[in-house]
Fold this protein.
Amino acid sequence: MKIVIDIDVPFLYEEIIINILKRLPAKSLIRFQCVSKHWKSLIKNPSFTAEHLDHSTHQNPCLLFEAIDRRTLNLHLLDCEMQLRRAPNHPLLDYLKRGWVIGSSNGLLCIDISMVDCISHHSLLLYNPAIREIRQVPTTCTDFHGFVGFGFSPIVDDYKIVKIYVDEAYDVEKVEVYSLRTGSWKGLELGILNGACVNSERFTANGAIFWFGFKRDLLGRNGDPVIISFDIAMEVFTLLPRPALVPRSYQNRLATYENKLALLSCYGIRNYESFFIELWVMEEVVAPSGGRWSWTKKYTSNPYPHFVRPMTIWKNEIVCKISTARGRENDNPNTVLFNLTTRESTELAVCRSDYVRHIFNYVESIIPVGGM
Amino acid sequence: MSSSVEAITVLSSDGDEFKITVSAAKLSKPLNWMLEDVCFSDDCDEVPTIEVNSKTLVKVIEYCEKHAPRANSGASDSDAEELKKWDIEFMKMDVKDILFHILMAANYLHMEGLYDLACQTAADLMKGMTVSQIRKIFHIKNDFSSEEQEQLRRQHPGCSFD
């Protein structure tokens, strides 16, 4: 056997190879697992997976559009270069057709498939579209009425799903948590959620999951509106205040701004001829009088002529759906971005004929869904 | 170090001499330390050797000289834009022939900007490559058994070993 070593080409240090690989899209990395056993173990290594995620989070934060076309779920991605592409559906999702994205965290999506006709149990899937891995979360109940949240905590390095069961009046009855690390569900004490009700979709950020809700007063009436926060690491609920919004503000949605919890709202003036978007940020204050959190208004948009629904904050933009009939037409924009610095707005036509249900922040990762 | 020195001489691993201005040399941490520690006046005999071949060193010095003014004084947005375009042109090079050498040199000389640029260039080139092309440029042998290949194919449909 003749061994030829080309001395002109250097063998790169592993450190350099890792620095190159972390810049590759998931699709290429899946392919390059087949290069050699060493490359496969390099790519599968959790520390590399984390490095790749970190690079992707900082260099290419994307938006995920949960779009519905004739009741079929389609996922579309918008990257930093404003390129839109269809995220590949897993064959299982293509088969089920319907699904409801609960949350997006580090490239993993939690999808509720309970409304699929052939499924009788309350069922959830974990899906990584970049590597097309899917896994069914064990079911705990046949009948579920309530709110689900999904998120990650770096403190415990674990992904968790929370199910809040509510009665007809939206009062919390029971809470269950699923950990991807242990692969099992467990019940939680209600604690501060005793006498609280939940009434909104969830939002996940900074190791916590949030919902809007109310705390009932002693007579059982709706008391103060609150934000319910679930610490993923500690598995503890906390109640946070809501800001004092303009009366009749609607479509309040939670987001993160400069790593702080933020609230987006919209209101119309002059018989709904123009609309304004507001951004509020929650900051920790040192107040001996008791209140630990205070909300500050950071931004009010220029007037916008259409009814919009704020969805999230992406890079330096507030992302909104344009919710007029106009938005459903093929070529009309259905999404608008409000730049927080320049105050300019950019209209986009995303996914064309599909109805956009939700818009999530998304980063591509190669994190496996098959347990950790 | 005497403040009158504006350029220093260095030797490549092939033994060729190269001039590099002090401000450009400062982009490299080890060179910067050397500038602070060693005497570089005109009557100094010692010429430091950089373990990088001549062909690569020419490119590294070219990069340093281009980036030094901006690194030392900061730059306007239009300068940054111009520099970005220059980087793209600068990186149009053969992977095997020179890019890998630049990667090794930038890593060895602790030049963050050039290292990042070279890693990104390599990644952009690799994105579209086949598995066998990757093996060729990285000198890697396919060490999977046919059973292992079959298993990987099952896990990731469309996974190719060629």
In short: Chain B has eight helices and two strands. Residues 103 and 118 of chain B are 6 Å apart (CA to CA). Chain B has a mean pLDDT of 84. The beta strands of chain B are 7-11, 17-21.
